[in-house]
Amino acid sequence: MQDYLKGLNKEQAEAVTHVNGPLMIVAGAGSGKTKVLTTRIAHLMNLGIDAFNILALTFTNKAAAEMKERIEKILGNSNARNLYIGTFHSVFARILRGEAHRIGYPNSFTIYDTDDSRSVLKTVINELNLDDKHYKPNVVHSRISQAKNALVGPAEYATDHYIQQEDMRSNRPAIAQIYQAYAARCFKNGAMDFDDLLLKMYELLQTFPEVLHRFQHKFKYIMIDEYQDTNTVQYQITKLLAAANENICVVGDDAQSIYSFRGATIENILQFQKDYDDVKVVKLEQNYRSSKSILNVANEVIKNNKGQIPKDLWTDNEEGEKIKLVRTMTDNDEGRFVADTIQEQKLRNHYYNRDFAILYRTNAQSRSFEESLRRMGIAYKIFGGVSFYQRKEIKDFIAYLRVVVNTRDEEALKRIINYPVRGIGKTTIEKIVIFANEQNITVWEVLQRAGEFGFKAGTLESINNFVTMMRYFQSMLGDKNAYDVAVQVGKHTNLVKELFNDKTVEGLARYENVQELLNSIKEWTESPDSEEGEVIEKSLGAYLQQITLLTDADDDDENADVVKLMTIHAAKGLEFPVVFVVGVEETLFPSAMSINTREELEEERRLFYVAVTRAKARLFLTYANARYRFGNLVQNEASRFLDEMPEQYIDKTYAGGGLHNKGSFENAGSAYQRMQRGFGDYNDMASVEKRYGPPPAKKAGPERKPVESKPSYMPPQATAPKVVEHKP
Ligand code: ATP
Ligand code: MG
């Protein structure tokens, strides 16, 4: 027997050694689903199946990188680099780079991130003479996104009775019109938004049988992790790809489906057995991750969901410590408690920083933990939040690079045409856009033919200079790598100089950020040039693609000794020795927006299940009686999920206001409401502040450095990010 099979249990081994025909593994958290998937890929390769013929779709690019690494370890060679592993978006983006011309896009198409999409939407909404206060771009965007993920195009959207009723009900009947205009504008700009990466892939396979056949032939073995979170378009694409060989293996847990707000549908799991004949179904019931206490609590809570495939998840692991349920006065106390406990656990149980994770429902909750960790001198890292790449100076710089690669990219072009200021004012830009629309040509074409449009001499000269400069950058694309082009852009646009001359604190930070960006492009350019089964050219286009596709959880560095802070969504599939699930309060978790229907509430409960099952040995659940949200002090009851946990596995503690008295909090159990009543004076802001200090500062004070997220957003290819110690 091969070594890699030895440690597996019977069901796991069965799944790993099932080679041909459809296979479905539905199993609870920590039962080894991902391990089975990984081992199975190694097994296939061990049998002589070519890595080039294997496609594995994961939820984050980081998961993909990890998988590849483990496979190399198992096989003892580097053949795994030829595998096609990645997220749906990254794999399809890569394929579209070679095929997009067939459906009318340039192969160098731009990928619009959420910000870009909203900005285009805003333009389109205004052009349609609609009010963007009513047709809020983010609302419209999520509507369009839903439609795309359900494979509903603009035409169908406009005629679908049900959709139209919905839009009428929210008094936004023009969304269909906006959708149509938005799609047309993206196309004209040679740009795809995130949803298009899936939608266009589907269209490509649908429209061109020869392309479909080629990829069916290439991907003889297909594997999908976290299948419960796939949406309709993902489902349809994989169904098309798998149709010829039917060697498709999906792995999932219906109890961990947490993306229905993005159109994921659990039906895909249920449908699988109907789609293929002779599906082999494997159930994994042993959990290898968590202590008995943790697993039992998770099992009990999820039982409250009605729509769940019944599962019997058990573990051989030790009983372990009881789950600590901790109440604090305020969110600041909560932060302090967590930092204190981390310090204490490190001393007492010899943990490292990297053994701890703090998981929250929303990104905004990170603040109090950051502050207390910093005060204690504990190194930490935040995953997600305001991305490095969302900062203005970075977006400006990248906008230049985008236009260099794709002149049709109107969003980027408008962003930089007069930045740094070069005498092409707002009115001129408006005129340019109007000309472009009238003549149905791109903005870039108007600029190139500026002489024909009657601009004033000075303006014309500015435009011509701009065009000449951009052409110069473009001329380098063929033979210069991404870094070389970027350096020229920084220099000739005066972008770097402009920031350098700004000697304010913010200006300095912006200058450093741009330097950091250039560093990261350099590192990327110099990193190994074979990834995901393909030789990567170090072109500017390739660089832009990979930074747009970075996902929240992708910037993990296993070796960095830092406490990890992230949302529960970002923690999917991960595990940590000690987990703090914080802010377990009504209106926060479950979220106030998700308690109106059973479906929504059940999704919140699954999220809670995901959170709890990340923990291996120790689990802390904390909640605060009062916290500042959106600038106001609000009081909250303990989350209803806490009431659903069996008492015998739980230790209740009060770690209250300011005094740090960790006395036991007896009798909290049955009536969180009673406790709630005890804090009536919280209605009075002044008395609260007197007791517990002022509300958290709205602006960072001088000693509060901005969130150190720089190292977190380096592209995955970059060498180990520098971890910043947050000294008190
Ligand atoms: P999730 O539902 O959270 O994605 P999962 O089902 O994918 O979890 P894995 O992450 O693959 O589970 O495995 C959980 C842990 O259990 C990992 O640390 C893994 O190494 C370990 N594990 C899985 N199977 C075995 C086994 N047969 N023997 C020892 N450890 C195992
Ligand atoms: Mg997993």
From TrEMBL:
<keyword id="KW-0378">Hydrolase</keyword>
<dbReference type="InterPro" id="IPR000212">
    <property type="entry name" value="DNA_helicase_UvrD/REP"/>
</dbReference>
<keyword id="KW-0547">Nucleotide-binding</keyword>
<dbReference type="InterPro" id="IPR014017">
    <property type="entry name" value="DNA_helicase_UvrD-like_C"/>
</dbReference>
<dbReference type="Pfam" id="PF21196">
    <property type="entry name" value="PcrA_UvrD_tudor"/>
</dbReference>
<feature type="region of interest" description="Disordered">
    <location>
        <begin position="685"/>
        <end position="721"/>
    </location>
</feature>
<feature type="binding site">
    <location>
        <begin position="27"/>
        <end position="34"/>
    </location>
    <ligand>
        <name>ATP</name>
    </ligand>
</feature>
<protein>
    <recommendedName>
        <fullName>DNA 3'-5' helicase</fullName>
        <ecNumber>5.6.2.4</ecNumber>
    </recommendedName>
</protein>
<feature type="domain" description="UvrD-like helicase C-terminal">
    <location>
        <begin position="292"/>
        <end position="573"/>
    </location>
</feature>
<dbReference type="Pfam" id="PF00580">
    <property type="entry name" value="UvrD-helicase"/>
</dbReference>
<dbReference type="InterPro" id="IPR013986">
    <property type="entry name" value="DExx_box_DNA_helicase_dom_sf"/>
</dbReference>
<comment type="similarity">
    <text>Belongs to the helicase family. UvrD subfamily.</text>
</comment>
<keyword id="KW-0238">DNA-binding</keyword>
<feature type="domain" description="UvrD-like helicase ATP-binding">
    <location>
        <begin position="6"/>
        <end position="291"/>
    </location>
</feature>
<dbReference type="InterPro" id="IPR027417">
    <property type="entry name" value="P-loop_NTPase"/>
</dbReference>
<keyword id="KW-0347">Helicase</keyword>
<dbReference type="Pfam" id="PF13361">
    <property type="entry name" value="UvrD_C"/>
</dbReference>
<keyword id="KW-0067">ATP-binding</keyword>
<keyword id="KW-0413">Isomerase</keyword>
<dbReference type="InterPro" id="IPR014016">
    <property type="entry name" value="UvrD-like_ATP-bd"/>
</dbReference>
